[in-house]
Amino acid sequence: ERFSAEGFHFTRYADNLTISGGSELGGAERVVERELRLLGLKLNDEKTERGGRTRPVVITGVETGRAAKVPAAKVALFHAKITAAVRDDLTDQVASVRGMLSWVRSVNPRQAHALYSETVQPGSAMRAALRRKRRRSRKTR
Fold first, then answer.
1. Can you state the angle between helices 94-107 and 109-119, rounded to 10 degrees?
2. What is the pTM of this model?
3. ∠ CA(106), CA(14), CA(71), 5° rounding?
4. Among 75, 89, 95, 103, which has the highest number of CB atoms less than 10 A from its own CB?
5. HSE-up of 74 (CA within 13 Å, CB side)?
6. Helix or strand or coil: residue 104?
7. Which of 90, 85, 95 is nearest to 119 (CA)?
8. Other C-beta atoms lying within 10 Å of the C-beta of residue 119
9. How many C-beta atoms lie closer than 10 Å to residue 124's C-beta?
10. 19 three-class SS
11. How far is CA 123 from the centre of its chain?
């Protein structure tokens, strides 16, 4: 769920609220705190992150900053999983590999390109499997 007001963007994902916008968000934070109080809720200071371009924070698995990106630890995990699948010729994991690459691409296409280039070697069975069109299953209900 996403909406904008007074130059700020508010995004909600489950119980995570994100406010983004100009350099001064203090006013927006006060509005959110007031609205939460009216609902009988309060902002959890231990879960509140304040950051931006100069102080990146991770929000729902995506690191903020000059550009959104997947945190290095997550990229390293995906790198290890994809490398193992390619090395062990595990083409039955193509859906999993495709999902990892797709999610990284949705956050930061440059990171996805680097991850693909570093892990899915030319001539590998995994590269061929990834290039094949996905077949849509026809399930009857």
1. 150
2. 0.71
3. 40
4. 75
5. 16
6. helix
7. 85
8. 23
9. 16
10. strand
11. 29
